[in-house]
């Protein structure tokens, strides 16, 4: 069910043998497959608990993105291992949104160059790879060395974080935008805007359905933000602390 009447009063977290658990009153939260809902970091547990605590009289499960991501990581319904998750993420390079360009109309082509070229250039410099772009329906020819570099980069993340990275990629339809976001090079708002560039162009030109556009935009931002937060909260604490100290 997408909605349900709230059946608990208090939400708390506790530390168990396998990690941090979520308590709804005196009952321990479980996954859809009946596994004990246990997360690897206290920060993630607090974030999930906040999600449950913020639900009003009627629980809206479709707004609980962090809980959903944790359930996916715990139940692993597709039964994929780390290598399979990495290769699935890198495969998105072949159809990456920011690599596919139009030639007409000229205004949109120019907009794509102005907005997408900088993020592609950043990724090429950041990871020392060649990506490029193409107006062909076949897309750019991504070198094998570029794919191997991204495979190595993603291998530095744990399985939980990789679930979050793939989730962000599927929302943005772009590995490049996702890595820019997770690397804190661009904001959630910027990543979403760049992923919807053609749609935003058409809206500026032709107008939009007043409420539908704003709703879709807010929903996408919420999902992308949750995915990025999930990745950071699932990363090794020492790595997170090191990156924060660098910033």
UniProtKB/TrEMBL annotation:
A single Gene Ontology biological process assigned to it is: mitochondrial proton-transporting ATP synthase complex assembly
Checking InterPro entries in the record gives:
ATP12_ATP_synth-F1-assembly, ATP12_ATP_synth-F1-assembly_N, ATP12_ortho_dom_sf
Tell me one Pfam family matched here: ATP12
* SUPFAM superfamilies xref list: ATP12-like (SSF160909)
Question: Which UniProt keywords are listed?
Answer: Chaperone, Membrane, Mitochondrion, Mitochondrion inner membrane, Transit peptide
Locations listed in the record: Mitochondrion inner membrane
> What Gene Ontology cellular-component terms does the record carry?
mitochondrial inner membrane
Stretch forming the signal peptide? none
Identify the domain of life: Eukaryota
Mode of membrane association: Peripheral membrane protein
Q: Which family does it belong to?
A: Belongs to the ATP12 family.
What the entry lists under PANTHER family is as follows:
ATP SYNTHASE MITOCHONDRIAL F1 COMPLEX ASSEMBLY FACTOR 2 (PTHR21013:SF10), ATP SYNTHASE MITOCHONDRIAL F1 COMPLEX ASSEMBLY FACTOR 2/ATP12 PROTEIN, MITOCHONDRIAL PRECURSOR (PTHR21013)
Q: How does it assemble?
A: Interacts with ATP5F1B; involved in the assembly of the F1 component of the mitochondrial ATP synthase (ATPase). Interacts with FMC1.
Tell me the function of this protein: Plays a role in the assembly of the F1 component of the mitochondrial ATP synthase (ATPase).
Can you say what this protein is called?
ATP synthase mitochondrial F1 complex assembly factor 2
Supply the source organism for this entry.
Calypte anna (Anna's hummingbird)
